[in-house]
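Record 1 of the preview.
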Amino acid sequence: MKLVFATNNRHKLEEVSAKLNGAIELVALHDIGCDEDIEETGATFYENASIKSHYVYKNYRLNCFGDDSGLEVEALNGEPGVYSARYAGEHGNHDANIKKVLEKLAGTGNRRARFISVISLMWNGTEHFFEGTVEGTIRHGRRGTGGFGYDPIFQPYGFDITFAEMTLEEKNKLSHRARAVEKLVQFLTEQATGPSL
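->
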């Protein structure tokens, strides 16, 4: 089974591919000849994920899914939210984004936060949504060199290390994206084999 992941983000591809365990062949946008930078103009994670999957399905008629994910910090009223990748202005500047979060939280006792991931799957012309979240806290400084984005400052509940200190395998057991992908895989498995009794 081949499925297009509406991204060219190498880190996301690695995370999701590892979760799929070879059961589904995942291809990226550049694999189908799509070099378009699909703009995320939605106001919610659901809207942004939907924009990506609809774009690919409309233009290439291939089963595909798009995702949108980000960090929501309770004391910052849910910021950075849908603006997670460009919170400090420049898209994908992880260092600047982390610095801005830490500066805005300086002197704040409430460090509660969560990562959320929403997947929009276009499957034979019908859209399906899958959501995954992981709760945790924002550390006062960076720790670890793995992962990407806000991983160096996010510590999930029940752990004394950040996402950036975990191996990909460890992170994939509990991350927001992993949880959304598990629901996606369950759906695709049922499509291929029929629902289990």
